[in-house]
Amino acid sequence: QGVSPPWFLVLLFPIGERALWTRCRNMKRNGSRSCATRRTRFGSRERDWLKGDTQRGCVCLYGGAVDPQPPASGPQASSTPQTDLQLVLCSTSTSVEELCAQRNGQGLYVQLHGDLVRRLDPSERPLQMVYDYLTSMGYADPVRVQDEAANSDLSCMIRFYSERPVNADQQERTLLKGVFSVRKGKTQLHKWAERQVILCGTCLIVASVKDSLAGKMHILPLVGGKVEEVKRRQHCLMFSSAGSQAQTYFVNFDTLADYQRWHRQASKVVSQTVSVVDLSCYSLETVPEYLFYCQDLTHLNLRHNFMRLQGPGSLLNLPRFSQLKSLNISHNRLGVFPECVGEILSLTELNLSCNNLHTIPVQIGNLQSLQTLCLDGNHLSSLPEELGDLSQLNSLGLSFNNFSHVPTVLEKLCAVDKLAMAGNRVESLELSTLARMIHLRNIDLRLNGLRCVKCETPEPVSHVTQLDLRDNCLDSLDLSTVCNLETLHCQRNQLGSLTLSGFSLRMLHAGSNRLTTVNVYPVPNQLTHMDLSQNLLEYLPAWVCDCRKIEILDLQHNLLFELPSRLLLNSLSLRKLLTGNNRLQRVPDLLDHIPLEALDLQHNKLSELPEGLFYKALNLKYLNVSANALESIPPSSQSEESLSTLQELYLTGNNLNENCGALLVGHQNLRILHIAYNQLLSFPASKLSKLELLEELNLSGNKLKTIPSTVSSCKRLHTLIAHSNQITVFPEILNLPEIKLVDLSCNELTEIQLPDSLPATLQELDLTGNSSLTLEHKTLNLFSHITTLKLDQKSAAMPGDSLGSSTLWKHGYSEMRGQRNKLCVSVLAVDRFGDGGEGCYGIFDGDRNEEVPRLLQCTMGDVLCEELQHSCVDTVYMCNTFLTSHRKLGMAGQKLGASALLCYIHRETSEPGSGFSLTVANVGTCQAILCRDGRPVQLSKVFSLENSTEEMERVKVNKAIITEDNKVSGVTCCSRLLGCSYLSPWVLPKPWVCTEPLCAKDEFLILGNRALFERVSYQEAVYTVQAVRDPHAAAKKLCSLAQSYGCKDNIGAAVVSLRVSEDSCTCEPPVLNDELRGPTPAPVPVSVTPCPSDPGNISSSSGIGTEFSSETSASEVGSEAGSTASDEHPSSGPASRPERRCSLHPAPALCGIMVQGPAPTRTHPGVFQRQPSSATFSSNQSDNGLDSDDEAPLEGVISNGSKLEVEVDIHCCAFQLRPGAPESPKELNLENRNGKMRRQNSVVVSATNGCLLAVCGRENGDLKKSPSTSSLFGKKLSNGSVVAPEDSHNIIEVALEAPKKKSGYFTAPAQQDPEDQLIVPPGLEQEVREQLK
């Protein structure tokens, strides 16, 4: 039971010089958990045959007796039925016809991305299809393509079936039929009889003969009718049609399941007001035959199928629907226009989008009733003149075709009021052409490559009111002759000048250009909204001040030195003024009772604000003056009584002191207050108590030593951020009923006074970077329910020792949720990756999904390490790392995706003394910035449609529909992502790769997601990190600044400090053992009290450990991701201290473990590795089965249902948890006996989130080295745990099949961690002394 049958070989007759072999084996649907490796699938004969030609390969054929999309998770996944998987060896020239002939099959089917299933044409070649798919993804090496084609994980992207897969749910929604007891009419005159009953479309069909459809068929239209339960009979339904001549049928079902299925489907039909049948996305080739009985059908949706043009049930039969008004056959790969559609004279709406159409036949002129015609996403370059005969046509969609000019036939279509031609190839527009089309009101010509708009005649174009010219190549635009223009969109061009008529102008959107001035005449008195952001304006045009109805004015990112006084004195309607990122030195006085509601003045040079700002702008609710030079703020009123309605106030990055606290009291409606990175020494206690409605408070980056106890008066406070201060006492905020997030990292906390119970609302607590903080076991128990708890891992260190100084780079990172409920950003950070002091860092942004970033965080380091074994070419191994990670996402990557950025610091050559290089690869919008000599160097490329014209053109060529917000199919603005494979070939996983040699001028590296760099410029990010220096605190500051600048999304930032030069060598000269001896540091209180007889039992639990040495600052070890110091414990015998070596001069390696001497026969402990803790995981998918209820509790592990982030130091192999005192020093070290290393009672710590999994009594030979954990043995699962490979499954499957829980992460170990120390046997002590001289 549960054992697969042995392999057997079927040799099929040769086809020319090719031969086919088939191997069959019962496998699970995913084909990855129980699938054998490729080496064991084939024998030597088959492998030799494959190696002979890269055009040979393997096609995996799945059976069709199961649902093509298996369950992704849950307990039922393990008991799903199995399917036959046939591995067919063939070549790229082998056709479907040949494969079917060898197998006696009827046909083959292909499924892309777990979506629709299509029957393959006999001439199609399956293996060539796979090769083409892999090549389009980005694979270039033919040998690698051949190898990837045989990988079972590829089935989540492209899968072949020998039979059409059966989807029960799809069949239910398409057609229900069976033989049941039926009675006609409500009276007892008719008797019950067994009849064939069919529910298809909008009708109930009852045959007149049992088990046969011959003879008369009784049709009962159900739209507007009723379906009711008959209580007198079990499992009986009454079906009634609508109208005065209503008919009724009673149907008695055999089982409850049938009853419920028919009731559910019939209820949907009777609830409709019109006769609509939706058969979209059903992989249909023909229309169900029973559907033609529905003669009342008026709306038919066949979108996203594979409809045939000829044969029974094909589109040729559609004219049989005599009352059909609306027909949608878009996305059907038709290739040609179905001429039979021209015979459906009742049509009023026809959608033929995305069908690879090149021409429209003249039969289109027969549809005289047609009102809407959608032809988007085809290859049309002209239209027939007969189209002009459709007098009732009022909507014509021609977007994303190949038109080079506006079709002249539009002059005849007098009812069409909108020209929808986005995404075509119209490079020149003549206004005289539009003048002849007097019926057009709305013109959409975005994404056309438009270079000029010509106005050869002074004839006015008076009928056009809306014009969209976004994302073109215009350098100037004169629309003065379009005299009735109301709305103009011309963003993202190259406009240097803009001239408009102001007679009717209401909305002007001209951002992201090069405008120095805008000419509008006459003054647009109807103008309400104007966007001139991201231009080169040095002054505001004078006519703007005369616009009496303007409500929204966006002038951000210009070169303005001042605002005209008349702007704020004359305006009676201005509600929103955005002037951030300019050069303003003052703000003019305001008009009394100005209706201003939002004012953004950030990133200017303001030293003061108008005195009457708050009591003149009584409607002001939002004010952002961050990043200025303010030393004070104006009073809220002229008297003690304040009428302020201010709700959001951002004062970050100024020169404010504690005196501003008294001026904030008047804003009693304040909900959000950001006053970070100022000069506050304190915050007046009496003033804080007045802000009772405060919900979010950010006091970071000041010099506060305490937060007033009156903060407890802010009963609505849910977020308190006060990192990077000098706070010594934990504030009294744990009694607040709505508190959710508390960030007190990088302070000087020593203890926490807690109430008897904590609020259930508390979700995140960050206490990292508090070097003197000690937590008792009772405190940790109180924190047990917190979803995300971030604490430092502290270690005992000898005086003057810090392992952190022996690496060339250290990192820190920060993540913030913003106003979202979940965190969709993850960070990978490994300071010691592989050998020779290399490093690996990455950031992954899922936008609105958290699953894909987590999976990439857990797997991408491993994949990179594997790829490095196959190639040393940067573009090859980085590209393959991304493509393999894309494949390993499996089913999770079909519909979900993420931006990804990976940085790999490595040696330029394999020689030990060579320099370092930085290789960066990315897809999506995550970016990497290198600070070189104080200047930012961009290493990544932003793959968004707005930022890359090449990517925009590629997506257009592939006929994607790009919505008005520049998103592919309305889903994502990125043209390259990991995941989202269903958007292929528009969205690809192939990365941008860049390699930069590192030098002494390179100071640090900044990684960030889109939200960070949208708000913080490259140069400001560099200045910020230079001012802070500590990576952890710098990353915190970057995220805080982005929030204060207005970001509401998830923010992620990582800072990597670089020291690459011989001058920064951190090697220590060798010293004798006697010189190292000193007093043992006393351990601090720990969560689990160690045995007195165990002097080396140093705590490794969360936030618990010995004091840091004086050389190790809190900020140096306060990183959320592995910026930790080394543990050293006193030995019980003579020992020499390990010589500290830097990454430029690494110590020799033995069996993958860094050792401190040349003699291979001595016993060496594993040197601690600097490893990252996890990115903040949300708790809704925390359980992967390892912490389920049926697992035995692990000794020394607190499994409390919450997540605990820990800063941990990790041995090369493991550290031990011993309940009692060791019998000898060898029990504290990794032993090497007879050339075989072993561990006893060891616990492996994940490099991802500090989660633990006990591995007791296992030999190291049984464990697999996990690259992403940097010399850790074992397989890291989706929650960061490390297990032996024989106990692990495919990482994607485990993540997807894990039971969904709201908690369940392992916490830190409650035992103490032994130190890392080199033990020298007595017999070798003299030899060591001689070598160290």
TrEMBL record:
InterPro entries: Leu-rich_rpt (IPR001611), Leu-rich_rpt_typical-subtyp (IPR003591), LRR_dom_sf (IPR032675), LRR_domain-containing (IPR050216), LRR_R13L4/SHOC2-like (IPR055414), PPM-type-like_dom_sf (IPR036457), PPM-type_phosphatase-like_dom (IPR001932), RA_PHLPP-like (IPR055071). Residues 1170-1185 have a biased composition (Polar residues). SUPFAM superfamilies: L domain-like, PH domain-like, PP2C-like. Keywords: Leucine-rich repeat, Metal-binding, Repeat, Signal. It comes from the Eukaryota. Coiled coil: none annotated. The keyword Transmembrane helix does not apply. This is PH domain and leucine rich repeat protein phosphatase 2. One of its GO terms (molecular function) is metal ion binding. GO terms for cellular component: cytoplasm. Pfam families: LRR_14 (PF23598), LRR_8 (PF13855), PP2C (PF00481), RA_3 (PF23010). SMART domains: LRR_BAC (SM00364), LRR_TYP (SM00369), PP2Cc (SM00332). Residues 1-19 form the signal peptide. Residues 1085-1113 have a biased composition (Low complexity). The keyword Signal applies. Residues 810-1058 form the PPM-type phosphatase domain. Residues 1076-1192, 1303-1333 are annotated as: Disordered.
